[in-house]
Specification:
The chain is mainly alpha-helical. It contains 9 helices and 3 strands; from the N terminus they run βαααααααββαα.
Length: about 220
Amino acid sequence: MIPLRDNIPHKKLPIVTVGLMIINIVVFLNELILGENLQEFIFLYGFIPSRVFSSVGVGEKFLPLFTSMFLHAGWMHLIGNMLFMWIFADNVEDRLGHFKFLIFYIICGLFAAFVHGIFNLHSAIPAIGASGAIAGVLGAYFVIFPRAKVLTLIPIFFFWQIVELPASFFLGFWFLYQLFLGVISTGTYATGIAFWAHIGGFLGGMLFLKLFIRRLRFIRN
């Protein structure tokens, strides 16, 4: 399922959301010009779980937890993440405020990487991408805007259908799908997708939201 848009307009300019998207795009464009140095760059700034438990310096261990959130493996990886961010992050930023949203986003990304590391302790493959942090945004959206509508493109055999789905259904299905794939891929490093980062990010977003909002006001649509 591919989200196209939701039905909740943002009230304030989502400057943090746009800023994060610009950073991700600029970093990816930088990746494109690295040529043969790209692999070294990814291994240096991507999050490698096994490196956390090695004897390398503190900076080499923990800096990639942060920098890996801004790296992407290709155009489709980047476009997919930016699409989800554009559709869902602006409303969460509206609700939290700019500064709180930025902190929330980073915390979710760090937590997502941590969960990925726990389930892949001995992996030497770099994990990169904003999807863990964005999954945290999805978790927050799931809590705050359960009755919002998401215009969704759904493939049905050889046809594509556009339908409007409740956000609770769209995001709930997304999470259960990630959980299913995460469970069946546990212990396998060749999937190419950090499902447990998505799962951890989503659950972290739901959990950490309570630290940023004292009293939740649900949007009823």
